[in-house]
Structure formats: C-alpha cells, structure tokens
Amino acid sequence: QVQLVESGGGLVQPGGSLRLSCTASGFTFSAYRMRWYRQAPGKGREFVASITNDGGSTMYADSVKGRFTISRDNAKNMIYLQMNSLKVEDTAVYYCNTFRPNGADYWGQGTQVTVSS
Question: How deeply is 69 buried, as exposed, middle or buried, from its count of CB atoms within 10 A (0-12, 13-18, 19+)?
C-alpha cells in the first residue's frame, strides 16, 4: 500500500533553514506529482508546494515563494523541501501528499517544524 514518511522537522530560529524529506513506497513514484502541505495550530491544512512526476515543473504558495524549494529524486523515491529564511508563521506540521485521478489522496504522518527564537 502507499506509504509516505516525512522527516527532517525540528526547532529553528527565525531566518534559519531546514530540509524536509519524504520517503515514498507502495506505488510507482516516478509516475506521480507530489505535494507538500502544512497545518499550523488552529488552522486548516494549506498547500505549500508541488512538483511534477519528472521534476520539470514546480508550484509554490505565495507565502513561501522565493524561500522554499521542492525537489525530488526518483531513483530514491524521495521528495524534499528546502526551507530558507524561515519565519515564525512557517511553524506547522508539514505533510507529504500524493493523489490519484480517481480521487484517492494519500498523506504521511507529518513532521513538526517550529520557528522560534
């Protein structure tokens, strides 16, 4: 079955950097677009970034554009989220996601990112 496992979260000061990873299994990874979402305390889950199956095209939420970079390694079945110039408002649980045309939606367990001085 589809499994997504995020890692790399932690506590970082404002202006710092973190790199999140997501390891995927149970499906043909190179065939599917992948996405990062996040959920801050008391708020709904929001889109952060996406990447096409071949890594050729990416999209970002306006709030992270220019600071975050999504990438993937199809040989390792992994996606990454490089987060620079982190702000307090980036504090959230970050989730890896893949979806299917039939409506199926798969999520990891999430990794906590806390930006605080």
Answer: middle
